[in-house]
Amino acid sequence: GEQVEQRPPHLSVREGDSAIIICTYTDSATAYFSWYKQEAGAGLQLLMSVLSNVDRKEEQGLTVLLNKKDKRLSLNLTAAHPGDSAVYFCAVSPSSGSWQLIFGSGTQLTVMP
Amino acid sequence: ETAVFQTPNYHVTQVGNEVSFNCKQTLGHDTMYWYKQDSKKLLKIMFSYNNKQLIVNETVPRRFSPQSSDKAHLNLRIKSVEPEDSAVYLCASSLGLGASAETLYFGSGTRLTVL
Fold first, then answer.
1. Nearest CA to CA, how far is A106 from chain B (Å)?
2. Nearest to B104 among A94, A98, A101 (CB)
3. In what order do the strands lie in the sheet with B64-70?
4. Banded pLDDT at B98 (limits 50, 70, 90)
5. Rounded CA gap, B115 and B112, in Å?
6. Chain B: nearest CA to A9, how far in angstroms?
7. CB A21 within 8 A of CB A39
8. Which of A47, A66, B6, B72 is within CB 3.0–4.6 Å of A35 for a Cys-Cys bond?
9. Cβ contact A43–B48 (<8 Å)
10. First to last CA, chain B
11. Taking phi first (over 0 means left), then psi (-120 to 50 degrees means alpha), and beta for anything else, what does residue B52 get?
């Protein structure tokens, strides 16, 4: 079955720096990719999602890159600020029509003032 | 306000007790889920319900049972809790049948501590 690895598990950056989180997956038929953010004491909230026909998507200081050849998904937070401090999860769906989202293991991002 | 609501926020109990967690969504979604999040933040799907029908039952211990009265409610009951049940239990919903492009909407979680 699909395996998802996420790294790094912890990431500390200074305010204004970029933060990059990477997930790798194993199933080349994976059709749907998303990133969720979990703030302390809260549930997960969708940040961005892309389908497999999209290589790059940018929204509000966030960039998602999909490299299907290397089976790698990344999230880049440009100019991070303390409010971005949270746990970030990638989530993939193995193939079109599959019900299940498979989550990465999470990255605890800390943005220091 | 439309969202996913979970109660209680926290629950502390002793080994062997029974607990029940409530989840309600006001988003009009057809599918609801229960996830377990351990102390390392790892997420594991436990159950999924589509319009009151169980569509996925992952290999969780039999002491866990989902309960749904209608598509807006999915409660979780744990009979005779064990120490390893200590975790955050997250309820979520999605619009349709949990298809590949679904967005999950999560509640804020119930933190269970088993002494």
1. 7
2. A101
3. B4-7, B19-25, B73-78, B64-70
4. low
5. 10
6. 10
7. no
8. A47
9. no
10. 36
11. left
C-alpha neighbours within 13 Å on the C-beta side of residue B7: 3
Q: Give the amino acid at A88.
A: Y
Say how far apart CA B47 and CA B57 lie, in whole Å.
5
Chain B interface disruption, residue of A54, A99, A105, most B CBs within 10 A: A99
Q: Which of residues 9-48 of B touch A (CB under 8 A)?
A: 40-43, 45, 48
Amino acid, res. A57: K
Give the span between the Cα atoms of B89 and B111, in whole angstroms: 6
Contact B106 A108 (CB under 8 A): no
Chain B residues 54-83 with CB within 8 Å of chain A: 55-56
Asked if B92 is an interface residue toward chain A (Cβ–Cβ < 8 A), one would say yes
Cα–Cα distance between B19 and B34 in angstroms, integer? 15
Backbone phi and psi for residue B7, each to the nearest 5 degrees, phi listed first: -140, 145
pLDDT tens digit sequence for A42-97: 999 999 999 888 999 999 999 999 999 999 999 999 999 999 999 999 999 876 55
